[in-house]
Amino acid sequence: MVCLKQQLTNLFNEKICSFQLQLKQQSIVSLADSAVHISAVSDGDGLTVLQWRMKPGMNMRDPEDEIRATGTKYGVIQLERKGKKITMRVAKKEGDPFETVGEHAMDLPNEILAGIFICSHNPDVIEQAKAWNIQVKQ
Fold this sequence. Notes:
mainly beta; five-stranded antiparallel β-sheet; 0% helix; 49% strand; globular
């Protein structure tokens, strides 16, 4: 089991904004944007979702390859892998009970890359963020 947990805020307005925690299949050639992955995502509008790409180069399919959280604007995101099963959990703030967003089974290699990144859907906007209390457990 590998478990990643993070707390995030936008540096400007203290709200969650365009953060993605991503497990990405290791690639010998590159860390391509089109790689197989599963992501726990919190967007600037509060949308929180578990989404994945099953095959290299596939387009991201919405809503076929995602599970949406029932709430919005979570402050703590957890992504856990047990074998083939990936589970996403969220909490409003540290210390609150976790809610399970969903789980999805994927054939990922034993060794994967796990990390946190931020992106903007607007090419004219450069996002800034602060991540803390990042935990990786095995």
